[in-house]
Amino acid sequence: MEKQNLYDLNFDELTQLLADLGEPSFRAQQLWGWLYQRYVPDVAAMANLPKTLREKLDTAVTLSAGHIASQQHSSDGQTQKVLFQLPDNQLIETVLMRYEKRRTLCISTQAGCAMGCVFCATGQMGFFRNLSVGEIVAQVLYFARQLAQTGDHVTNIVMMGMGEPLHNYQNTLTAVDRLTDKTGFNLGARKITISTVGLVPAIRRYADEQRQTPLAISLHAATDEERGKLIPVNRRWPIADLMDACRYYIEKTGRRLTFEWALIAHENDTLEQAQALGKLLHGLLCHVNLIPLNPTAGYGGVPSSRERVAAFQAELERYGVSSTVRVRRGIDIQAGCGQLRDRVISQNKAP
Ligand code: SAH
Ligand code: SF4
Prior knowledge:
Blueprint: E1 4-5, H1 11-20, H2 26-36, H3 51-60, E2 61-62, E3 67-73, E4 79-85, E5 91-98, E6 103-106, E7 110-112, H4 121-125, E8 127-130, H5 133-148, E9 156-159, H6 169-180, E10 192-196, H7 200-208, E11 215-218, H8 224-230, H9 239-253, E12 257-263, H10 271-281, E13 286-292, H11 306-318, E14 323-325, H12 339-349
Parallel strand pairs: 1-2, 6-9, 9-10, 10-11, 11-12, 12-13, 13-14
Antiparallel strand pairs: 3-4, 4-5, 5-6, 7-8
The chain binds S-adenosyl-L-homocysteine and iron/sulfur cluster.
């Protein structure tokens, strides 16, 4: 029988589990603290629980993010990438990026992705399944545990690993609620960024829920012709619909939106695209992140040169649209989403 993942349970469910085992309710409090404040790796480490209870729990539950199928550190030591193998053998990636003060985790919300963006390693592999709340949360706790060993902690989370977070809406947002719970992990809601390819109904729902967690939109092109080539869902929700949803979000929440733009040489880094983007975003409460493309096996595009990036950014400035050029982190360890899994699979296939 597959073990129940303890991170799948909210506090009430945990209380119920313990009641079913004949335990008093204060045990739930203790267990919650071990999970979300002490980040213990297993039930055995929960020292103030009776041994008999620990043994009972041990046979029924797990706290694991999965078996570590592969792990890599970038040459500068600042980026660490882990490939977790889930009980049904699905492989998902989590990346830790160390900056001066920040410790940012890039986590996965699905095994694979159904959106099929042509430049994305995850999109190229197709969709396998949604991750459960526990599988999303466990990625964070794994790194929280590791960082705690040196007195350090997770400061930011970006949902920019494998999968489309808003295509797994309920589990993703429940995981956000779990990680921001003041009685538990207690990360600030503003420290978690959800990145979406632009699922219009889900963006509107997100706006209606008035959530504090920032949203990033993966735009990557400013005309339907260009965006449709890169991002198949643009045919379902073209740019005009997406921008309507974005304006709705800003009106409802008063929050600034981030737009992501992977710069692909002579594809979406032209002056025409910069001008179209400038017109589209002019006057909107937003910021653009420009990221040179991370090359992937299944797509022939190449990253824009430094000069082309600078020219693109300068053109945006003329429209009063602010942008930041992001450095690519962990490029030597294929830290772009989906890329480590690809490598491990092809190695396993090799004779
Ligand atoms: N599905 C969500 C979140 C995961 S992808 C989304 O698409 O937003 C996280 C970010 O990485 C997105 O902005 C995505 O467009 C970008 N991305 C994917 N493949 C990339 C690549 N090869 N180079 C640069 N950025 C890439
Ligand atoms: Fe999915 Fe995002 Fe990759 Fe597109 S970029 S295929 S939405 S993970």
